[in-house]
Amino acid sequence: MLVAEVEDDSGRIKGVRPLGGAIEFGESREEALHREFREELETDIRIVGPWHLLENICQHHGATGHEFIFAADIELVDASLYERDEIRYCELDETAATARWFGRDRLRDAGIDLYPTGLDRLLSRWRD
Predict the structure, then answer these.
(1) What is the C-alpha separation between 84 and 32, in angstroms, rounded?
(2) Considering the entire predicted model, what is its pTM?
(3) Topology of 2-125 in CATH?
(4) Is the backbone peptide bond immediately before 116 cis, with ω within 30 degrees of 0?
(5) What is the chain written as a DSSP string?
(6) pLDDT < 70 stretches in the chain
């Protein structure tokens, strides 16, 4: 699974999350997923699995956040990305970001949290 680092306020990596982003007004979830990968990794994707819906309620600086996440299995059209251990890219706001390939067991063994909450349970059928 290709995941991006999630930092806390001090810049320490507290976990990882799959790549993706927000759905823009008038955009379908499919269009949003394709757009996000073109923007972040400059590659097209193929959606190869069913859609899943996760609801994430969290606390950040004393405020409650609430989001719905649509997730699907994909394949990257640019196969060379599978050969790279680390992929550096820029978010739309030009924030530098790093993505890495991880298996679920490797995340668990390293004590790295996987976001959003509930994704690990959804992936429990998946093997490294």
Answers:
(1) 24
(2) 0.84
(3) Nucleoside Triphosphate Pyrophosphohydrolase (3.90.79)
(4) yes
(5) -EEEEEE-TTS-EEEEEES--PPPTT--HHHHHHHHHHHHHS--EEEEEEEEEEEEEEEETTEEEEEEEEEEEEEES-GGGGG-SEEEEE-TT--EEEEEE--HHHHHHHT-EESSTTHHHHGGG---
(6) 125-128
CA pair distance 1, 8, nearest whole angstrom: 22
For 110, list phi and psi in degrees, rounded to 5.
-85, -5
pLDDT on residue 28 = 97
Closest C-alpha among 52, 40, 45, 54 to residue 74: 45
For residue 127, the one-letter residue type is R
Kindly list the domain boundaries of the chain, sorted by start residue. Answer: 2-125
